[in-house]
Amino acid sequence: METRTAEYRLSNEIRRNLESCILGKRSEIERLLTALLAGGHVLIEDVPGTGKTQLVKALARTIGGQFRRIQCNPDLLPSDITGVAIYHPKHESFIFRPGPVMANLVLVDEINRATTKTQSALLEAMEERQVTVDGDTYDLPVPFTMIATQNPIEFDGTYTLPEAQLDRFMMKISLGYPDAATERQMIVSPNATSPAELLEPVVTSAQVALMMEEVKRVHLDNAVAEYIVRIIRGTREHAGVQLGASPRAAISLTAAVRACAYLQERDYVIPDDVKQLASPVLAHRIILHTESRMNGLKAEEVVQAVVRDTSVPVRMER
């Protein structure tokens, strides 16, 4: 119990460190930490200037792990991400030079500006946590989390993310504009331009890896598991949906709610954890019928309706 209390304290220190840098975004920070501890990847979709890059930089400095940034553009090649094998004359052999994906925290900036071929190079890293170069396989470090950003309003020179890749992001979140009080606090701060650079690590990547193992041991009652399944199947049966949530989505939601419970200092999942995370975990995986989209229906609304119509378990074992 003392060990678990210490790990809870570390998670609170991570949260406080990020909130000291990223103002007014407690909910978004909580979701980012949830994905990190659940071993998932995050897609941040928002307009420029809302703090997406600062948030990822702040997280990287907070956990003291290796951080790499990939700035996507149409000229980016798959080898620019995974790395290359270069022939070394002195040793008369090929030596692998790792690419930026070989890090604990990888920021893929403006992912929708990379070509589909380059985007597909990320799939193996996201799903298998490894890269293959010239037939040789290289494991990625632990922890490994990819956080991609995209601008939802610029379409010139962009490529739509394929459904298979969207399905590998555990969550899709948006930061949005700050409220007036927070924005004023930001502009009068002497460190407003680069607040993340001043942060000091509060944990190590090894400690984060241990916390991830603790998350896997959070209890999931059979009734809550059934609740998750009913929600997943409800997205497939909704009249406005062409393609509902996949089995991978069910696995991602399960991992996410375990991490959510852990961050709330509980060793068991409750239905409210599922309600809280259903939309950010499921909405970006759902494809609506064309007619539904033209009528203004949104995937988030579908998930909210399904959750609202799904009966909540009232008895659970702990």
TrEMBL record:
Gene3D superfamilies named in the record: Magnesium chelatase subunit I, C-Terminal domain, P-loop containing nucleotide triphosphate hydrolases
Pfam families named among the record's database cross-references: AAA_3, AAA_lid_2
Record's keyword terms, sorted: ATP-binding, Nucleotide-binding
Superkingdom of source: Bacteria
Keyword Glycoprotein appears in the UniProt entry: no
CDD domains in alphabetical order: AAA
GO molecular function annotation: ATP binding; ATP hydrolysis activity
Residue stretches making up the AAA+ ATPase domain: 38-179
Family from the record: Belongs to the MoxR family.
Protein name, per record: MoxR family ATPase
Organism encoding this protein: Paenibacillus lycopersici
